[in-house]
Amino acid sequence: xxxxxxxxxxxxxxxxxxxxxxxxxxxxxxxxxxxxxxxxxxxxxxxxxxxxxxxxxxxxxxxxxxxxxxxxxxxxxxxxxxxxxxxxxxxxxxxxxxxxxxxxxxxxxxxxxxxxxxxxxxxxxxxxxxxxxxxxxxxxxxxxxxxxxxxxxxxxxxxxxxxxxxxxxxxxxxxxxxxxxxxxxxxxxxxxxxxxxxxxxxxxxxxxxxxxxxxxxxxxxxxxxxxxxxxxxxxxxxxxxxxxxxxxxxxxxxxxxxxxxxxxxxxxxxxxxxxxxxxxxxxxxxxxxxxxxxxxxxxxxxxxxxxxxxxxxxxxxxxxxxxxxxxxxxxxxxxxxxxxxxxxxxxxxxxxxxxxxxxxxxxxxxxxxxxxxxxxxxxxxxxxxxxxxxxxxxxxxxxxxxxxxxxxxxxxxxxxxxxxxxxxxxxxxxxxxxxxxxxxxxxxxxxxxxxxxxxxxxxxxxxxxxxxxxxxxxxxxxxxxxxxxxxxxxxxxxxxxxxxxxxxxxxxxxxxxxxxxxxxxxxxxxxxxxxxxxxxxxxxxxxxxxxxxxxxxxxxxxxxxxxxxxxxxxxxxxxxxxxxxxxxxxxxxxxx
Length: 592
Hints:
It is a single chain. The longest helix is centred in the N-terminal third of the chain and has 16 residues, at 158-173. The chain is 21% helix and 35% strand. With 592 residues, the chain is of the alpha+beta class. The chain has helices at 35-45, 99-105, 128-133, 147-151, 158-173, 190-201, 203-208, 226-238, 272-285, 320-328, 478-489, 543-557, and strands at 2-5, 9-15, 21-28, 53-58, 74-81, 116-119, 140-143, 179-184, 210-220, 245-254, 259-267, 289-298, 330-342, 354-360, 367-376, 381-386, 392-396, 400-402, 415-420, 426-435, 440-445, 452-457, 461-463, 501-507, 510-517, 520-526, 531-538, 561-573. α6 (190-201) packs parallel to α8 (226-238). Strands 14, 15, 16, 17, 18, 19, 20, 21, 22 and 23 form a ten-stranded antiparallel β-sheet that branches.
């Protein structure tokens, strides 16, 4: 086993010589944009590729003192069987003639006469999608990046943005029919996509300029996540959720092993899947490009009156791939990822305190009611009198929020509670969306309908989240964490781990602690403030006992430390998704 500690994160490698299995943990709390490139390089250097392995991804804590954005990091866990040296270049441009791809894409539009806009980059850059389709004449128009946006010098100026929007709308209005195809070239800039989205998804845009049945196509470019979000906005905001709305992902490869990924959204085409299959077959017949469908998904099913469902037995499904994957699994250990966080205790309440209690316990559309504390009970419970109907209620402290505390907010984007109802006893959850003068705000209410309330005064809302007693939190230290980690691994003679190798490293304001033994390893990272992540791997049946002992040690010795998450994953080869204890017997659907 090897662990490489970097300023930006760490890399852990476990490799078995007898079967070629290797496992990587890659964690970055700085330079996160390099994650994909680092992952591909590591796979190549150990003799594998993305097709020969499986992976898990988690979002965890960060590290202060190493970046201006210390919490922008993620943990990617890569399991692989290193049995191939073929490397797929995921960000290489396809060298073959790509015109065929986009010409076939146009056939997905459910109209004989397509009306297409192509979002391009700067006018000086070649727009591949438009070049492939310009022989269609006036039915395809390019929308190049406005000069002021391309330079970035006037992006924040409303006049510049308005001028760009006007020019785009002029081009869209000049088309002979409503837009039914939107293509996003690889050179396109995010601000231009946002402007086009705004123009076509406004109430007027949907009525006058965008066909209800339309297709959106974008090339997926590494590190430009906005492209997938652009597709998703059409799925959720334009013609929300319901069939026939489809999404698809395709991979196109050429003989030189270059590849590109394409995302597609289709609205209104009941024959989309069969048309997509025909598209793939047509392109593959040319034998220059190899196209494969990676993912498809549909919108929610619409209500069908007098629907009579058709039932299928287990025998009706092809279980060949599932059975092959089940047989190929070879779990060798268990990885447990802990996330711990110091949580400031809430101040105790006293008789007479004005409070809100959570009447509807839902994450988003929760409802809160005015009340007064009448009695303090044991077990962190309180008797309250409901201001709405004067009923007495016994409520736990975790469901109560003081009506007046120091946790006031007027920051846009913050989660708040807003006073609602004629008598003002009911409070709903929402978010501050816009400032309207010095003391009034626009609030988006989470009531299931997305109600917007304007000119809400500060007296009618408070922060949803209560401030805690930060001064009561303990101060963490590297020495303390080191002692607890060693103690959890050597808790008593029967459970003690032998041959333990240990080291610690100071990173930023925090630290990384590493321990190895013959059957596993553990990596602890502390962000220098309140957050601790522990990455534990054990390759025997005692994994659960080691993890339980470690968790008990930390929670029992650090006041106000809470466990945010405990994720357990099997590790091994053969596309493993089951723990060793899960595969003692074959499932009923397994076909030998």
